[in-house]
Structures are given as C-alpha cells and as structure tokens.
Amino acid sequence: MTKIPNAAAVIGTEVQPACYLCGGHGEILYRDIEDRLFGEPGRWTFKQCPNPDCGLIWLDPMPTRDEIGKAYQNYYTHGQPKGSPSALPGIIIRLIFRLLLSGLLQIHSERKRRRYMYLDQMPPGRLLEVGCGSGRRLARMRALGWKVMGQEIDPAAAEQAHKRWDIDVHLGPLETMDTSAEAFDAVIVSHVIEHVHDPIGLLSTCHRLLKHGGQLVASTPNAASYGHHQFGASWRGLEPPRHLHLFTCGTLMQMSQRVGFSHQRCWTTAVTADNIGRGSRPSTRATIGDHHIFTAGEELCGMLFQIAANRNFMRAKDSGEECVLMATK
After folding, report:
1. Buried b vs exposed e over 191-204: b needs ≥16 C-beta within 10 Å?
2. Rounded Cα distance, 192 and 175, in Å
3. What residues contact residue 320 under an 8 Å CB cut-off, 6+ apart?
4. What mean pLDDT value characterizes the chain?
5. 126-130 and 184-190: which strand pairing?
6. What is the pLDDT of residues 145-174, one digit of tens each?
7. How far apart are CA 157 and CA 167, in angstroms?
8. Mean pLDDT along residues 5-20
9. Residue 8 confidence (pLDDT)
10. Measured between alpha carbons, how far is 161 from 61 in angstroms, rounded to an integer?
11. Mean pLDDT, rounded, for 275-303
12. What does the pLDDT look like over 229-287, one tens digit per residue?
C-alpha cells in the first residue's frame, strides 16, 4: 500500500530552467526520480547544460531555500542505523572486502589519504569543516594535531558533534560566521557543495575564511563517473532532492577560479566505488523514517563494482566516483 505524505511534508520548489554556471538552457536528463535512499516525498527532474565547456547537472524544479530542510527529515546525520541480525552478513562481507580487496587493488593508502581529506602531509594548524555532520572526521583530524572547528546547519548533527566529540560547531549558514578575519589554515568541504543553492557563494566564503596560502579541499560526486555511466537514473550520486547541482572536475575548477583561488588541481578517485555499487541498484529503497541496512547481496554488489570501477579507472583517470578539488588562497 502506497504511503501518501501529508501536506506539511511536501517540499516546496521553484523552477530553475537555466544553468547556474553559464546560463544555458537545460535539457532534461532524467524525469520522475524518487528519493530511494531516505524516502522523502516527490518526483524529481534533472537537467543538464548542453554547453560542452560546462555540462552542469541540476534539479529543475529545485527545492526552495526555505523548504530544503524538509529533505533531511530522515537523513543519516540524525543518528546511526540500528543494528539487527539481518545486517550481520553484510557487515561481515564489507569487512572481508576492506581487508582483502583494498590490498589487492592497492587502494589502502588512497583510502587512508581520503579519510584525512588529503591533508595528512600538511603541517597541522587551524581547520574548519563546512557541513561537519556528526563531527567524526574532525575528531580524526584533531588526533593528527589540528585545532578543529565545525560548521553545520542541522541542529541534530551539530548537537551530536558537540556531545560525542566535544567539538566547537557554528550552528547556522556558513556566511553567518565571522568572515572579517582570515582564520583558518585549511577548510574542508566533503560532499556539501552539491547540497547548496549557491556553490560559488560557498567557495567565496571559504576563500575569505582562509589565511593567505591556506588550503581548500572539497570533494563531491563526479557527474562524469563510471558509476553514473553504468547506473544512469539509479546512480547513488544523484540523490534527489538533496543534491541540487552535480559537478565534474571542469566545473569545479571554473568555480574556484571565479572566486580567486590559485594553484588549483582537481582529480577523481575510485576508492568509494563500493558505496556507489551498494546504493545504486534499482532495488535499493529506504523505508520512510528508517535507515536502510544493506543486505549481503548489496554488499556483494558493492565489492564487484569496486573491482570493475578500479579496472576502468586505470584506463580513464577522470572516471572516479568522486571529484577532489584542492586549491590555495
């Protein structure tokens, strides 16, 4: 029996016919995509800019700034999924994968560097994480010697970061932080830029918060990835209605140049392909209000897709599931 959302749960939208970056008229890429991961109501359409020098993908219509919070009612930052006996086979398979395939595919060191947002070889200083969620990554960075601070707009996530990890979190939009002083040696933005209405504004604020010579590191799903090519409308990276824009290295570089960053470089990585393989199957569907617990079969799909994605990545270095932008102020 189909569950009909109440009127208060329906997310208000506004039309976005033009490309955010170049103003081109978008062409429909996918229609009527549902939120399979967290069960928020609605059907969503993605458009893509036809400009070969752009190619940005975005939602049209798009949740309004006032309504976007409804898209996070069941989001993972509000708690951890409850364990159950049915989850145990999947957990065991994932551990086996981590132990065996990471070595076999020679991605262990890359996974480690990603865990530290590629700052593990930089001398520790003051660090800000934009959209810090539960604070787990900041706790990890603090163990390396960084003086950490988080920013978050989700009160539940900010509370978890403070209570569990004793991390100072600015609760509110990034632009409401004091940007008059160049305060940070590094700013990290992990899987946040795809969630915001004004990505260039986000990067501009990060630029103002950095000291001269400071490092920005931002990661986001790669719209040109092998997984997107393979899974199409079921690709995990789409995640409507929370992912408002989807980028490539080219579009990330364009935006960082506009706000004044120097020495930019952008690359893709395939080390997260197992997550994409687990979450991109058409059968993957969360129950409204619950967290999805991956089955043993989905974990196996993730393992096999990691192998396939790594093989493809050896031939096409721009096909990784994540783009990573590193830029200097």
Report:
1. bbbbbbbebbebbb
2. 14
3. 222, 225, 226, 267, 268, 269, 270, 271, 273, 309, 313
4. 89
5. parallel
6. 999 999 999 998 999 999 999 999 999 999
7. 12
8. 86
9. 66
10. 33
11. 69
12. 999 999 999 999 999 999 999 999 999 999 999 899 999 999 999 999 988 976 655 44
Q: With the CA atoms of 258, 259, 262 and 265 taken in that order, what torsion angle do they form, in degrees rounded to the nearest 10?
A: -70
Q: Over the stretch 116-155, which tens digit does the pLDDT of each residue have?
A: 999 999 999 999 999 999 999 999 999 999 999 999 999 9
Integer-rounded Cα Rg, in Å, for the chain is 19
- 101-105, 156-160, 298-302: range with highest mean pLDDT: 156-160
Distance CA 33, CA 280 (A): 13
Side chain identity at 204, as an amino acid letter? S
As a residue count, the chain comes to 329
User: Hey, what are 225's tokens?
Assistant: 């990835």
Q: DSSP letters of 287-325?
A: PTTS-----HHHHHHHHHHHHHHHHHHHH-TT--SEEEE
Structure tokens at 221: 């799903």
Q: Are strands 57-59 and 44-48 parallel, antiparallel or unpaired?
A: antiparallel
Give dist(CA 273, CA 170) in Å, integer: 32
Q: Strand, helix or coil at 1?
A: coil
CA distance 139 to 47: 38
Alpha-carbon distance values, 127 to 22, 145, 149, 185, 260 (Å):
32, 10, 6, 6, 20
User: What residues contact residue 9 under an 8 Å CB cut-off, 6+ apart?
Assistant: 40, 41, 70, 73
Give the H or E element holding residue 213.
strand 210-221
Q: Are 183 and 291 in contact (CB under 8 A)?
A: no
Contact 264, 325 (CB under 8 A): yes
